[in-house]
Specification:
Elements: H1 21-27, H2 36-59, E1 64-69, E2 75-82, E3 85-89
Antiparallel strand pairs: 1-2, 2-3
């Protein structure tokens, strides 16, 4: 979680991304109350995380991937932070 000098109260807990989005879709329990767009959104976020982590390993080994969320629920899905990079991706 990215907490550097946050002016708002933040929530601190780790996020877990399944290593394979196809496997995530196959193993995730689905029920009549699950909306398809919620499942697709989590899958897409995991895929973006995989690609960002691969990009960091290849191009920016000094950077790390974080996320940011306030107690009220506002969230930035990905924060790339390193020596010469600071990017927020929603």
């Amino acid at each position: 979680m990215f907490t550097r000098k946050a002016k708002r109260a933040t929530v601190s807990h780790p996020k877990f991304y399944f290593f394979d989005t196809g496997l995530y879709n196959a193993l995730r329990p689905k029920g009549p109350l699950d909306r398809p767009e919620e499942i697709a959104g989590a899958t897409l976020e995991g895929l973006v995380a995989q690609h960002l982590l691969a990009w960091i390993d290849l191009r920016r080994p000094d950077a790390s991937l974080y996320y940011w969320r306030t107690r009220s629920g506002s969230e930035v899905d990905f924060v790339l932070y390193g020596k010469n990079i600071f990017r927020a991706i929603e």
